[in-house]
Specification:
2 copies of one chain form a homodimer.
Chain A lengths: L4 E6 L5 E6 L22 E5 L4 E5 L35 E5 L24 E3 L3 E6 L13 H19 L6 E8 L11 E7 L4 H17 L3 H12 L3 E4 L3 E4 L8 E7 L11 H22 L5 E6 L13 E6 L1 E3 L2 E2 L4 H6 L2 E3 L3 H10 L3
Antiparallel strand pairs in A: 1-2, 2-5, 3-4, 3-6, 5-7, 7-9, 8-9, 8-13, 10-11, 11-12, 12-14, 13-14, 15-16
Helix pairs in contact in A: 1-4
């Protein structure tokens, strides 16, 4: 596991870009000579008093790039006559600020809600949205990356988590991948994303509240005990390495859902040892390959890293990835309809034990 | 507003069916002469300790009827040579137990979690799932129903809310409609559904917790104050009648989202006065017609009634409907990807004021 070479650049409209290269001696272009329109207007976040959640309102994203043809892909390297978001003619892994971000900029500290209305509270949508390209090849897939490349992606996640955590006002850093037209991916080039939220997300807050209550009641860690219970039950285990365990959770919401925990409690990606990273680089693509093989061919999925928040409740957090897919049968998807969307009452048509057994049966 | 004639029947496999007729003198068939397979195995509900939510696992639903051709529709009336779920040759409105229910049966009280494991808790998936057909016409739409028919649907909602609330173990009754292939509707005949959940749903619990905190802090009702704030702000109002107000919420999650509140605090549909019902029968289809007109033609949507739970926190509840659509432009949908699905951090690409203004501009 060698260190990667990190090269920082600025895009023509002032956005940051960072190359992560696996070899010495590559010379990445750090000057973007395009003429770009000025950045879109900032978004806002609004507080929903019924669910006590923040919602980002980002009207400018309506105009974002939508399913470009492969020869117009903004995530491919630049070639003679066509400049993309990446100035160089090649790259290994690259991270850069999204041109149509839901969150951007730094809070000036000036705004704190609409005057006189504590029910209609709005703040600037500050924070950061970055794109992480896994490969200069347009049709690469994370599941097919060699482990050396996954290690480079891990280094990019760690680097950007550290950088975004230092931005004023960022409360949580979220590394994730949306894959597949079926879940609305608008750019097909293999890529993930990293969000720096200006608030603690509702999901994270609820999980950490559960962990706090459990600690108070039992003196034990909720995440570690869930992992131990799944290992003991065995029936929902998908795969284990020396340092990682993948399982379908007992109360899985999605017809295809796998959670991946390090066996040791770790707060965030940067705290993983080199050995843990090396094993992660093997087991994560292998899980995705099993998911793809289950129904034949590609599978739409969301792969989501849960890391400790930047400031609060860090000791309660347990790094883990949750992978979810709406695929419930060949050619059929689960949709989130009334019960899920309006009541948060999920109905899963595939039993977790059946899903785990089918995934285990696929050669790793 | 005349009372409807209610006729109860039993389907061949023991499921309940209730006709709601607008005219006297109709004679509905109450004997279902089909030979039906025995009911599917019961589902279970499992507790997710991380989010403190129940998830239903209903493996049998994988085999449910999926997009039948119009001449095989199980929700059309029976005709000579083809018997459907509705034994009669015609009906106005009919409600019956879903053949592939997520929740069914009555809790025997025998089960309370797996022995020795307080993290892996499972209960029987008791409760009730009903289908409500709005019209014997296969291609009817709620938005095009005459107000007299909407009143019949309201009477069915009230009747079934009362009936399901009396079932042992049902904690909450949820009347809703999923409409449109885009959100996964598997039967195209115009219909809604009613769920009797064996638990308080996570969404309702969170809303009522917010209302309880607000009451403690201010001595006032959260829902009533939100409605008052929206009426005062004006910019997000879609339509008002004497007794109802429809608005796009300040922190709307969906690109097309309308909330409909009675101006008077009401706990559940059965508490609406005849005048409030009559106005509802006008304003609700009119809102749906505006949503359809916005992007031309049909619009996928979820329309969800929030009523008071059966037993707890009833005084905190405020009856209202939330209508949500993923349509963000002609031919384009919002998808719930990583931020929404993994972090509950919604990003809305359409500003609520823009949506409300566009909906207002459409002739009612």
């Amino acid at each position: 596991v060698g260190a990667r070479r990190v090269t920082e650049a600025l895009l023509a409209d002032g956005r940051e870009l960072v190359y992560f290269d696996e070899r010495e001696g590559v010379d990445r272009i750090v000057h973007d000579t395009r003429r770009l329109d000025s950045p879109p207007p900032p978004s806002v976040v609004r507080h929903d008093p019924l669910l006590d959640e923040w919602v980002a309102i980002a009207g400018h994203r309506q105009g974002r790039t939508y399913l470009p043809l492969a020869d117009e892909c903004p995530l491919c390297p630049s070639v003679a006559g066509r400049q993309t978001e990446i100035p160089s003619t090649d790259y290994d892994v690259v991270a850069f600020e999204n041109r149509f971000p839901a969150f951007a900029g730094v809070d000036s500290g000036a705004s704190a809600g609409l005057p006189g209305e504590d029910l209609l509270v709005e703040q600037p949508g500050t924070g950061r949205c970055e794109v992480v390209c896994y490969s200069s090849k347009h049709d690469a897939a994370f599941s097919a990356l060699p482990s050396s490349r996954v290690l480079t992606v891990i280094e990019a996640w760690v680097n950007r988590t550290t950088a975004l955590s230092r931005l004023p006002g960022v409360e949580q850093v979220f590394c994730f991948e949306n894959r597949g037209l079926e879940i609305g991916v608008t750019l097909q080039h293999a890529h993930g994303q990293i969000y720096g939220y200006p608030y603690l997300t509702s999901r994270t807050r609820r999980m950490l509240n559960s962990a706090a209550r459990y600690l108070e009641r039992t003196g034990r860690d909720l995440f570690a005990d869930i992992l131990a219970a799944e290992i003991k039950a065995e029936t929902r285990i998908v795969a284990r390495s020396g340092a990682w365990t993948a399982f379908v959770p007992f109360a899985a919401r999605w017809p295809l859902e796998v959670h991946l925990y390090p066996d040791r409690q770790v707060r965030e990606l940067g705290d993983l040892t080199m050995l843990e990273r090396a094993e992660l680089a093997e087991i994560l693509p292998a899980i995705l390959r099993r998911m793809e093989a289950l129904y034949g061919g590609s599978v739409p999925y969301i792969a989501a890293w849960h890391q400790a928040p930047v400031r609060v409740s860090r000791d309660l957090a347990y790094l883990h990835m949750e992978i979810m897919s709406p695929r419930r049968a060949p050619g059929r998807l689960k949709f989130l309809a009334g019960s899920e969307s309006a009541m948060d009452a999920w109905i899963n048509d595939v039993s977790p034990e059946t899903a785990a057994s089918a995934l285990r049966a696929i050669p790793g």
